Amino acid sequence: MVGQINDYMLNQIPGEESTYYSSDSIANADGTGSISHPEYPIEFLNTLQPGGLPNYELKLKVGVPVLLLRNIDQTAGLCNGTRLIIKRLGRWSIEAEILTGTHIGDHVFLPRRQYPIALCFAMTINKSQGQSLKHVGLCLRHQVFCHGQLYVAVSRVTTRTGLKILSCDEEGQELKTMKNIVFKEVLNEACISG
Questions:
Q1: Residue ranges of the DNA replication helicase domain (predicted)?
Q2: I want to staple 73 with a disulfide (CB 3.0 to 4.6 A). Which of 33, 78, 84, 91 is the partner?
């Protein structure tokens, strides 16, 4: 769902789209040549989308928000979860402006072969932890599945008017209520020790 929303939003942004691909070779231990693994064809590896790793194909435009997927330079504010906005797209580097943290407004260059970023018009509830956002659109096609998840999602927004929630069942019918999953053992423990 997050990927679909990000793709849709990218298509709404005017401007030229640049596509970046991951590196498709593995160097030998001594740094020469490349290793071939017939049991792991490149075509198969390129379909994998493990969390925390950049996708094989990254499509970007100037002006889109992105999320850093790993720590690059903590002293410069380039940490996992930092949001940036793309300012310039080069062949071997990306110029971006930091949107969050103590380095807001700083311009940085991300020189990489495979950029550790992803579009972030939309993000998972887990990735939103620690973020303060002016506008949050919460799309709950399924009920939240663990204790505290609804709280984390709703508490990201800085004002009540900045929050919009869409909750629907499996048939796509809008729901007026949603479950707030509670870990009952925590409540029982609090009552016993209190």
A1: 114-164
A2: 78
For residue 92, the one-letter residue type is W
Q: Three-state SS for 167?
A: strand
Q: How far is CA 74 from CA 65, 71, 83, 109, in A?
A: 19, 6, 13, 14
CA 82 to chain centre: 10
Surface-to-core class of residue 82, CB atoms within 10 Å of its CB (0-12 exposed, 13-18 middle, 19+ buried): buried
The token pair that represents 117 in the structure block: 């970023």
CB 27 within 8 A of CB 36: no
Q: What is the pLDDT of residues 90-105, one digit of tens each?
A: 988 899 999 998 999 9
Task: State how far the Cα of 68 lies from the Cα of 107, in Å rounded to an integer.
Answer: 14
The first and second tokens of residue 105, run together, are: 């407004």
